[in-house]
Amino acid sequence: MSLPPPSPNPTQSVIDEALAIAEPLVLWMIRSGVGYAEFVQAIKPVFLAQARLELERNGQRDSDSAISLLSGLHRKDVRAFREASHQTLARVKEDGSSWGKPSAANQVLTRWLSQEDWGDCIPFSGEAPSFEALARAVSKDFHPRAVLQEMQRLGVASETEGQVQLLREAFVPDAKHKESRELLAGSVADHLAAGVHNLSGATDKKFLEQSVFADGLSPESVQELNLMANALWAQVLQAVMAKAVPLCDRDLHHPAPQRFRLGLFTFSAPEFKAPNTGDDAS
Questions:
Q1: 104-170, which class in CATH?
Q2: How does pLDDT run across 7-28, given as a tens digit for each residue?
Q3: Measured between alpha carbons, how far is residue 89 from residues 44, 48, 72, 244 in Å?
Q4: 144: burial class by Cβ within 10 Å (0-12, 13-18, 19+)?
């Protein structure tokens, strides 16, 4: 009589899934010169802070023992990092909020892209459509010339004889710019937070978190899909900005403001094929 198969270990399943998520993160850190020891030391206060928050959500006291049991941290680490966890949580939340909010230059760029009839070249001065009018519509706290200089530094715009040119080919994020890294971090963190929220059985609301997957494709077919995705994104951007701009103006002084992010990404890679170990050979 054969024994029943062992029950799946839900913890191991989550670890496997977390490792899949962590793989590109680890690659990014290695390419950026961040090693294992540095990351492990830096993430301990994050584990501690999240364990404290989870105990608080469940109405439990955040004793050293409870935090140690929930987070897996040694009690000496809990004692050592308890104060650091407060600072880490505050810093991460502050960074996440600032990374979620584009700079004035990025806001001008987004509004420009949403203006379907403006084209990629507009005069700097004058009434709309002009760069000056566009920049002042985004914020009166920054001079339009300063905003253009920042866009030139980022390589997404140029100016010749009073005409400002949008450089669409430069929209690929540049690792040299801190802004590019922050936008990636903010986007990925919000995407993951939406998925974790949905998986946590929350009943108050569900976030949109969907994707489309296709395999067995040739490189040419992938390119066709990429072109279609970029065209669709241009339509989505224009539609969302047309709705968001007047809503932002209306809610400018709301006492409890919230932030919103809608994202779209594409990715392609060769399909993974497990190596043939020869176990099936007769």
A1: mainly alpha
A2: 556 678 888 999 999 999 999 9
A3: 11, 9, 18, 30
A4: buried
DSSP codes joined into one string, 47-62: HHHHHHHHHHHTT---
> Residue 142 to residues 109, 136, 137, 197: CA-CA distances in angstroms?
14, 8, 11, 37
Per-residue pLDDT at 106: 80
Supply 123's token pair. 């005069």
| DSSP bridge pairs for 160 | 163
Amino acid 282: pLDDT: 40
Tokens of 126: 């004058």
The ranges assigned to domains in the chain are 104-170, 211-252
pLDDT at 281: 44
What is the residue type of 114? S
Tokens of 236: 């989505």
* Collapsed DSSP state (helix, strand, coil) of residue 5: coil
Q: What is the pLDDT of residue 254?
A: 94
First to last CA, the chain: 26
Q: CA torsion sign, 159 to 165 to 166 to 171?
A: negative
Checking phi first, is residue 126 left (phi over 0); if not, alpha (psi -120 to 50) or beta? left
Question: Which residues of the chain are under the pLDDT cut of 70?
Answer: 1-10, 92-101, 169-177, 202, 274-282
- Which of 164, 29, 184, 161 lies closest to 109, judged by CA? 164
pLDDT tens-digit readout, 197-216: 998 876 778 999 999 999 99
* Predicted model pTM: 0.74
Strands of 163-166's sheet, edge to edge? Answer: 121-123, 163-166, 157-160
Q: How far is CA 166 from CA 54, 134, 171, 239, 280, in A?
A: 46, 13, 10, 20, 58
